[in-house]
Amino acid sequence: MANFEVTADPGEHGLDARRLGRIDQRFNQYVADGLLPGWLAAISRHGKVCYLASGGQRDMEAGLPVESDTVWRIFSMTKPITSVAAMMLFEEGAFDLTDPIERWLPEFADMRVFTKGSALRPVTEPAREPIRVWHLLSHTAGLTYGFHHAHPVDAMHRAAGFEWSTPPGKDLAACCAAWAELPLLFQPGAEWTYSVATDVLGRLVEVASGMPLDRFFAERIFAPLGMTETGFQVTGEALDRLAALYVPRPGSRKAVRNDKLGEAITLTPDCLQGGAGLASTVADYHRFTQFLLRRGELDGVRLLAPRTVELMTSNHLPNDADLEQFGRPLFAEMPFDGFGFGLGFSVLRDPVKAKTLASKGEFAWGGAASTAFWVDPTEDLTVLFFTQLLPSSTHPLRQQLRQDVYQALC
After folding, report:
1. The whole model's pTM is what?
2. Mean pLDDT for the chain overall
3. How far apart are CA 248 and CA 251, in angstroms?
4. Fold (CATH) for 10-72+230-285+307-406
């Protein structure tokens, strides 16, 4: 169990301690109003932890407080880790970013694309080009999520058992086979939509490496980076530190416990979801963000070349478009205006359009239970936020945290 604490005076690293107190005030008010169970935020600058604060409870019913070693479901903050795994294999020559994924996942050959009709009677046409590796990394493959509830293809995913989870008994290979049977939302490369693409990418990692995804993560990423408490299942003494999962009560939006969804992380998973399956701690994920900030290296261990990280954190949407221009108006873990998308991360391309104090080039993502992180290379800054409120669209926590963090920079 890693010890995580403040290691430097914020004032010595360009952060106003008094202004940082606004973070505490804002999120403790959410707790006082019953809208959040508990929260934890951490800010590092120049490699030093300058701010660490928490409030509320990790388990309201048991009266257990949030602590620095609390274990959190990170849901889609799994995606950047899967993307790093894929890019490690790319560096090793396992595949090119432009390669069709059907070379390793033949079930995705001869894909069809929805053109009109309904979920029960879809009309489709052949995909004009194959799904390529970079399409998976950038969410431009034409895949979708069942929870979008916006299109007949989403409904087809739900009918196949895919909404907030995967069908019982189906492993990652079986899930990919099922997704490949469904039509794509659009032609590969034509648009951006948040999707199961990173889960499919996880399967590509398995096939290309010859290792199950959990083993690849454990041996190739977590052990080298010292991430000792990140994994697909929470067991043993860590169960005592696991935060409960909450959802908003309809009408009041008061946080209420949901053990049906929450208990999944305590069970052996049927499907190793590269897009959503991990739990972690602030100490572990802080190490991951420091590895990214340092362009692929941490404490003498290099997993990616600097140029690879630069490529991943560049906007890959055509003509430097943002998500508002190139994406469908569906849910994602970040705003659309002013944000592009790289290979596993959102990328801030226009702070003015985004109406944010953050820096151009900041890269980030979040998770369904309202967790979030971002890395700002310009300010040599990383920020982490943890809570357990599903879905993350319930409150504008991330936008508010950005405002509070950047107004504290001196």
Report:
1. 0.97
2. 96
3. 8
4. Beta-lactamase (3.40.710)
